[in-house]
Write a structure and sequence with these properties.
Length: 84
């Protein structure tokens, strides 16, 4: 809700800059997730007994990555508002 209120304060140029940066952050997040998945699959191919522990660790790391990405999105939004 707070993010939406902040977004409403942006002018067209700021909104465009925000969306470009957000897409970059989302792309980096997707790439990180894909890297984690490849590494996890490689580890499981070597030792299937790691499955439960790796699955839990992977889920926790994905959640952490998502939170960091959203924090960066919010930081970018705040920076644009300061520039206004």
């Amino acid at each position: 809700m707070v993010r939406e209120l902040k977004l409403a304060k942006l002018n067209d140029e700021q909104m465009m800059r925000f969306h470009i940066k957000k897409k970059q952050l989302e792309s980096a997040f997707r790439n990180d997730c894909e890297t984690y998945a490849v590494v996890t699959r490689a580890l499981l191919a070597k030792d299937e007994s790691l499955q439960f522990g790796l699955k839990m660790a992977l889920l926790e790391n994905m959640e952490d990555l998502y939170k960091k990405m959203m924090q960066r999105v919010d930081d970018q939004l705040d920076a644009l508002l300061v520039m206004a």
